[in-house]
Design a protein that fits this description.
CATH class: Mainly Alpha
Number of strands: 7
Number of domains: 1
CATH superfamily: Aromatic amino acid hydroxylase
Radius of gyration: 18 Å
Helix content: 40-55%
Number of helices: 13
CATH topology: Phenylalanine Hydroxylase
Order of helices and strands: HHHEHEHHHEEHHEHEHHEH
Bound molecules: 7,8-dihydrobiopterin, fe (iii) ion
Shape: globular
Strand content: 5-15%
């Protein structure tokens, strides 16, 4: 998916923003969008949470062309005060946090190539707009994302960025939520991935664990494969409580404890399903 080291972009401006320059997308780029949009729309049906589906519908995101950020921003701004702005790819942490703190969501301008439909290292327009933007129509996600931006600026000073990033990873990117009618996806990394939609929700391999902030802060994650565990919240409102908590004392407590491996089950974990671990065991080298 992405989130490695910042790419080889050189910014013209300190905020890294670029013009989306929508007219210069090619026919082929729009066609890649349509391909991704069609197969992923079928994939998230019945799997994504109600907020995702409602956000997608309200934004009227079209299948046949890459969305214009200005038009998305009009609807978003009216609903939750957010805007979508164009960036070349991964941003340095402090720049990324600064945008979120101001309710600007930086979305990759570029779209992946046809030979990269299932995996890209940097967030492109499909991951960012299809995965993240519908959720920003929900008031709780809107507030949580801003709180993450503000918290990120603070975590840097407390030298706790790795711990905060794990919270973001296991919620906004790879979170699952319990709905009255069953488990659903709200994380953008899952919602924008064809294969992970089915893996995260339907496969026997991963652990699904009730969300605990202290637990998640200590849990390492994978950037090169499906997650080995997913954390489940009882409703999106749980994120609102998270946004209100002072993380500083928790960072201090977590600092004294060992980190947990992605596939580990820890004492105190409340398991929704205990995974077989099959997927990752098959990929691990015998001597690793
Ligand atoms: N930049 N464009 C972009 N998108 C991200 O999701 C992103 C980023 N820079 C840093 C980053 N994410 C994460 O590493 C932080 O959330 C910790
Ligand atoms: Fe993302």
């Amino acid at each position: 998916m992405k989130h490695g080291a910042a790419g080889a972009h050189r910014p013209d401006r300190p905020d890294w923003l670029i013009d989306q320059d929508w007219p210069s997308y090619t026919r082929d780029e729009h066609a890649v969008w349509r391909l991704l949009f069609d197969r992923q729309s079928r994939r998230v049906a019945g799997r994504a949470c109600d907020a995702f589906t409602a956000g997608m519908r309200a934004l009227a995101i079209e299948r046949d062309r890459i969305p214009e950020f200005e038009r998305l921003s009009e609807t978003l701004h009216r609903s939750t005060g957010w805007q979508v702005v164009a960036v070349p790819g991964l941003l340095p942490d402090e720049v990324f946090f600064g945008h979120l703190a101001a309710r600007r969501f930086p979305a990759g301008r570029f779209i992946r190539r046809r030979d990269q439909l299932d995996y890209i290292e940097e967030p492109d327009v499909f991951h960012d707009v299809f995965g993240h933007v519908p959720m920003l129509m929900h008031p709780v996600i809107a507030d949580f994302m801003q709180a993450y931006g503000l918290g990120g600026l603070r975590a840097r000073q407390l030298d706790a960025l790795a711990m905060l990033a794990r919270v973001y990873w296991y919620t906004i990117e790879f979170g699952l939520v319990r709905q009255p009618d069953g488990l659903r996806i709200y994380g953008a990394g899952i919602a924008s991935s064809y294969a992970e939609c089915a893996f995260a929700l339907d496969d026997a391999s991963p652990n699904r664990i009730a969300f605990s902030l202290e637990r998640v802060m200590r849990t390492l994650y994978r950037i090169d494969d499906f997650q080995e565990c997913y954390f489940v919240i009882d409703g999106l409102e749980a994120l609102l409580e998270l946004a209100r908590i002072d993380f500083a004392p928790l960072y201090e407590a977590a600092r004294g404890l060992p980190t947990l491996e992605p596939g580990e089950v820890a004492p105190g974990d409340s398991m929704l399903s205990r995974g077989t671990g099959r997927h990752h065991a098959a990929r691990r080298r015998p001597d690793a």
